[in-house]
């Protein structure tokens, strides 16, 4: 990337529900977020039947932009991009709004098409999430919904539909009634709009579905607050709908985990999402770390399109925390080699699990910059609180748990709160990571022995040559200590000496 590490970039999204500003800089090859500023403007609510924006709505927008303008003063003009979306696309008097807005910001505003919005959203998701195969990306905005199927950084098919949480609230929940009939009408309308796309989208197919909107983020917060995991499914959506209907009135909407800010458009966004799940046969959805604003930033940066998101994140962390990179690679390679030897009996063939194990191995020394004492607690804290593009929230928490137990006594209870992975699987990954760290202790490739690892149940059997064990008494002692730690969590580590060099 050619940008100066001290150069700032700003992306502003003039959305139909909210205005957003994202300010970033590039640090150690990664994009570091410096500020996220969001204001509920409800621009779409200001459209009348003739698509005229009301004076009140425009004033709300201008007032918000005056706040943004203060932050833009210190950012080079070439590093600023401001876009308008669905409501500004259709507003008959958009020139009036834009003229004053550009004076306030002292910067031009681009009104992008629905297709441009969809492609930029996809880039934001692609640069902040990770996964193999095709992905279906869904973004429910205030006045439009974008649907994209793509792989890595390339969208294959994309559309922008004229439905959003603000528009559907005005059409189907305007009286504030939360009855099943309101939901049925909204869901039917959304299904009718989506129906012409289903055949083409399903022909491409996808391995995962990612949500990139405030509606999806709000739903995930509700699910976690109510004790569920973060994966959104149709049964969970239907349960949320039942909770909303039980409240009777929008003013009385009281769902555990739902913020006051999101309440006015939650039910309409929920109805649209239910329709999408039904028509596309979506099994589950996760949330993305980025969307339109992040896509704008990466379009400005322009040079990271073909880089793996996770590898970029890991490289930035290793540089930022001064990790010994050759050693990190050594630990990672050995952890993966051990994993491959026991992959079948321990059910660790999944590529995603292998990548997460390798990531934890590369970051095993991240806490040392703070201090050797309690280094693993430092590592756990850093990962839990860092922004990690390419890792979902559940993956980040798994990384933090692995790094929190890379040495010392084991605690199986720390995995009980993880989502998307069985505690037994998480503990198995931890045990492999710990063995790799023990054998790489001398920090030399030549000191890593040939070894054979087998697994049966929770018992690991490790075979090493007797001459190597004789010449490495410290490692032998550490392995014996590891066997003691393992027994306390219901596992076993057996060490077998073989003849030979």
TrEMBL record:
Keywords: Hydrolase. InterPro entries: ATPase_NBD, GppA/Ppx_hydrolase, Guo-5TP_3DP_PyrP, Ppx_GppA_C, Ppx_GppA_N, PyroPPase_GppA_Ppx. Belongs to the GppA/Ppx family. GppA subfamily. Residues 22-302 form the Ppx/GppA phosphatase N-terminal domain. It comes from Corallincola spongiicola. Pathway: Purine metabolism; ppGpp biosynthesis; ppGpp from GTP: step 2/2. It catalyses: guanosine 3'-diphosphate 5'-triphosphate + H2O = guanosine 3',5'-bis(diphosphate) + phosphate + H(+). Residues 309-482 form the Ppx/GppA phosphatase C-terminal domain. Catalyzes the conversion of pppGpp to ppGpp. Guanosine pentaphosphate (pppGpp) is a cytoplasmic signaling molecule which together with ppGpp controls the 'stringent response', an adaptive process that allows bacteria to respond to amino acid starvation, resulting in the coordinated regulation of numerous cellular activities. GO terms for molecular function: guanosine-5'-triphosphate,3'-diphosphate diphosphatase activity. Its EC number is 3.6.1.40. It is an enzyme of class 3 (hydrolase). Coiled coil: none annotated. Signal peptide: none annotated. PANTHER family: EXOPOLYPHOSPHATASE (PTHR30005), RETROGRADE REGULATION PROTEIN 2 (PTHR30005:SF0). The keyword rRNA processing does not apply. This is Guanosine-5'-triphosphate,3'-diphosphate pyrophosphatase. It holds the Pfam family Ppx-GppA. The keyword Hydrolase applies.
């Amino acid at each position: 990337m050619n940008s100066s590490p001290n150069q700032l970039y700003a992306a502003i999204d003039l959305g139909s529900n909210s205005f957003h500003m994202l300010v970033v800089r590039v640090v150690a090859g990664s994009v570091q977020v410096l500020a996220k500023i969001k204001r509920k403007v409800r621009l779409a609510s200001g459209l009348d039947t003739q698509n005229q924006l009301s004076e009140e709505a425009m004033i709300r927008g201008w007032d918000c932009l005056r706040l943004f303008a203060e932050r833009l003063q210190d950012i080079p003009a070439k590093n600023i991009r401001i876009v308008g979306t669905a409501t500004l696309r259709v507003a008959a008097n958009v020139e009036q709004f834009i003229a004053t807005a550009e004076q306030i910001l002292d910067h031009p505003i681009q009104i992008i098409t629905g297709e441009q919005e969809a492609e930029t959203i996809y880039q934001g998701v692609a640069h902040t999430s990770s996964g193999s195969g095709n992905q279906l990306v869904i973004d429910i905005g205030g006045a439009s919904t974008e649907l994209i199927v793509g792989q890595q950084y390339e969208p294959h098919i994309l559309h922008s539909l004229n439905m959003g949480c603000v528009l559907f609230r005005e059409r189907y929940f305007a009286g504030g009634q939360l009855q099943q009939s309101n939901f049925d009408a909204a869901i039917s309308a959304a299904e009718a709009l989506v129906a012409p796309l289903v055949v083409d989208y399903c022909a491409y197919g996808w391995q995962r579905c990612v949500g990139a909107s405030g509606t999806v983020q709000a739903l995930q917060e509700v699910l976690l607050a109510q004790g569920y995991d973060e994966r959104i499914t149709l049964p969970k959506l239907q349960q949320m709908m039942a909770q909303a209907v039980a409240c009777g009135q929008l003013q009385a909407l009281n769902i555990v985990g739902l913020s006051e800010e999101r309440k006015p458009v939650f039910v309409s966004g929920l109805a649209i999402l239910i329709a999408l799940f039904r028509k596309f046969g979506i099994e589950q959805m996760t949330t993305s770390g980025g969307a339109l604003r992040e896509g704008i930033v990466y379009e400005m940066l322009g040079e990271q399109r073909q880089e793996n998101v996770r590898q970029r994140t890991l490289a930035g962390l290793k540089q930022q925390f001064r990790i010994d990179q050759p050693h990190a690679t050594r630990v990672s390679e050995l952890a993966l080699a051990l994993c491959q030897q026991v992959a079948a009996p321990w059910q660790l063939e999944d590529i995603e699990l292998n990548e997460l194990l390798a990531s934890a191995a590369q970051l095993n020394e991240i806490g040392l910059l703070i201090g050797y004492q309690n280094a693993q607690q430092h590592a756990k804290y850093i990962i839990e609180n860092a922004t990690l593009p390419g890792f979902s929230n559940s993956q980040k928490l798994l990384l933090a748990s692995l790094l929190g137990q890379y040495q010392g006594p084991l605690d199986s209870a720390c995995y009980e709160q993880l989502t998307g992975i069985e505690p037994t699987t998480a503990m198995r990954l931890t045990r492999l990571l710990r063995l790799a760290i023990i054998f790489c202790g001398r920090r030399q490739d030549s000191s890593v022995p040939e070894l054979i690892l087998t697994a049966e149940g929770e018992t690991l059997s490790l075979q090493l040559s007797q001459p190597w064990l004789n010449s490495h008494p410290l490692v032998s002692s550490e392995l014996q200590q590891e066997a003691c730690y393992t027994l306390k969590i219901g596992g076993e580590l057996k060490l077998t000496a073989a003849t030979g060099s």
